[in-house]
């Protein structure tokens, strides 16, 4: 019996080692067939064309992009079939794996909120949206430490020493630190906080004019989700946390709002954009198209690439599968199989983005070697 047990143990160890050897590591895997992309045949591929051309604006000088961008630019309003055939001719799909070899990850959503504000401070409009302050330093050490490429540290000078920039609690308690950097004034501190979370928005002025504002910079402190903070505080259950449940908690607990907000030390600065009717500019510095752009972890998925997204419609089990472009990043968007879908503007976009917390899979489309 002892020998039998040893044999069973030996084969069990062999099987475990074998599984470990064949488990894909985290990141972009080996190429697959187009038939592995569920729903690929049924998407409206032409809807991505504007986004693709915008990626080309930034990537067309790269050797692997030059020819395909020239061909893409030659199309005049391609049909869905023409667009699909173009992607199949010029790109190869690759699955994305998380740690442990799983293909599944978290898909969330964001949108562009509408706030009400004024270019002058008034009794009603007294909460400032700030532009990037001049004393905010951006430090890039990649020329000395190549491993830090793409990673920038923010700080400020204290004498001759660079120290971390002020966190949210300090800035909220000492608004004089940002005097002279007011971009616009709004009437709702909760809406202002969520503007920081979303990264862009529109502000309706008293005369009805819409002012588009977008991300300019950030104070260098890590983003912390107040939803996660409420879970850790025992105030909300994880499965119930979304934009609307958080808002309700804030309404029910006005005396704790400031303290909760300060648990997120990250602080965002904004700039105006000339065409508020366009989508906000993402990290690729191109306007985003609703439901055709995602924010990703750029250390996993390079910006500009097409990505096949497989997930479900928020609040239902209905499949949601479509081609999107990786054109943005976000402080909370970290991980291998992780994406944040841009839903656009308006009440429906707010609802979808506010509810979206779905399981999903990603396929990265890389240009074929020319």
| Major beta-sheet overview | 6 strands, mixed, barrel
Shape: globular
Radius of gyration, taken over Cα atoms and rounded to an integer in Å:
23 Å
Put simply, the count of helices is 10
Structural class: alpha+beta
Model regions low in confidence, pLDDT < 50 over at least 5 residues: 4-21
CA-CA gap between termini: 62 Å
Write the layout of secondary structure elements.
Layout: H1 2-22, E1 27-28, H2 49-59, H3 63-74, H4 80-90, E2 91-97, E3 105-112, E4 114-118, E5 127-130, E6 137-140, E7 152-158, E8 161-163, H5 168-173, E9 182-186, H6 189-198, E10 200-204, E11 210-218, H7 226-232, H8 243-252, H9 257-261, E12 268-273, E13 293-296, E14 306-312, E15 319-328, E16 338-345, H10 347-355, E17 357-367
Parallel strand pairs: 3-16, 4-10, 13-15
Antiparallel strand pairs: 1-2, 2-17, 3-17, 4-9, 5-9, 6-7, 7-8, 10-11, 11-12, 13-16, 14-15, 14-17
Architecture overview:
- This protein is α+β, with helices and mostly antiparallel strands.
- It is built from 10 helices and 17 strands.
- The protein has helices at 2-22, 49-59, 63-74, 80-90, 168-173, 189-198, 226-232, 243-252, 257-261, 347-355; strands at 27-28, 91-97, 105-112, 114-118, 127-130, 137-140, 152-158, 161-163, 182-186, 200-204, 210-218, 268-273, 293-296, 306-312, 319-328, 338-345, 357-367.
- The strands form 3 sheets. The chain has a 6-stranded mixed barrel with strand order 3-16-13-15-14-17. The chain has a 6-stranded mixed sheet with strand order 5-9-4-10-11-12.
- β10 (200-204) and β11 (210-218) form a beta hairpin.
- α2 packs across α3.
- The protein is globular.
- The termini are far apart.
- 33% of the residues are buried.
